[in-house]
Amino acid sequence: MGSQENLVADVTALAERLAQARASVEQRFVGQHEVVEQVLAAILAGGHALLVGQPGLGKTMLVDTLATVMGLDSQRIQFTPDLMPADILGSEVLDVTDSGARAFRFIEGPVFTQLLMADEINRASPRTQSALLQAMQERQVTVAGQHRDLGRPFHVLATQNPIEQEGTYPLPEAQLDRFLLQIDVDYPDRDTERGILLATTGLDEGAAHAVFDGPGLIAAQRLIRQMPVGETVVDAILDLVRAARPGADEAGPWVSESLIWGPGPRAAQALMLVTRARAVLHGRFAPVLDDVAALAAPVLRHRMALGFAARARGETVDAIIARLLAGRAGLTQAA
Question: Global pTM?
Fold first, then answer.
């Protein structure tokens, strides 16, 4: 009983700190409440997030603000077509001492940080993009045959321009799957854009302040994993993920007609974790079906691929996710 009471008290305290963190972020990143919530959920769940949207929508500023609010050391990489893997991971250089002795010395790349901002990640070549794969999955890199651990915590928040733009390369499926969430950043509505204008073009622009630090964030991530998840929510996650796989027993025939591949077990793990995080962000002690519905698209959209015929018909992955949600009791597409 005591441990349960401690868990409730810890979750309550975490929810209060998260409310402060969210308010601090939204002083600078105005009006995009769902985007802020999803990024915070990804970090709380211990994962990485891919922010997709047109240039100029504040994605870079959001990541920079999050580094301040979460109290994390951060590095930024501007991805360009000529960026090389060593520019991310680091490299060994040959040092010569005054006595003439020679020895290799490793110079760490920007990946050795706690929060890595990968700006316009899809403007680099696939070879360079893949340099992040091991770092994102294993929290370590291998350079010159030696394994080197990264910082703790370690998160990648990448921004991506729509792949239809010139000079972009699609991310490999294996790397996409390493991102816990794909967060679409859309144009703001009129009222939101008005708020942005008033908040960012005066002398006193909103300033973020630190609410967490590295050890505090790690403790919060451990707490998220201790939260209970009801059988109804677990079943909803399994039903939804398995229904999105072409050829699965739970999937309708129309799924195989529209998709060439669907989400694997990592998607179900991601949805389980971020629903817990969203519950805390909303001041609850356990996730509910609304959390599953709200985060289904960010978790699934980059883990599904349309077939040629579906693209020709004008179908979209988000529309398929909405249809999957509509076909399950208790789940509705979140606004």
Answer: 0.89
